Amino acid sequence: MDRDINLTETFSGLNKRDEIIQVAGELFRRLGYAETSMKDIADKVGILKGSLYYHFSSKEELLNEVIPGGRN
Does residue 35 contact residue 1 with C-beta atoms inside 8 Å? Predict the structure, then answer.
């Protein structure tokens, strides 16, 4: 699968948390959940991997935000 997709331009204008959710959703759809790493998501958003953990405690928590109805 193509890991060099440019999603940053697509999701510009969103706040960082929403941008992360949008980018993660796109990567999960294109690469699959298991094949998408937190580093993949961070790289596409343009932040450090550790910065993702400011917004989400885990990849599973992020997935729960991506899936419709996943937000509590």
Answer: yes
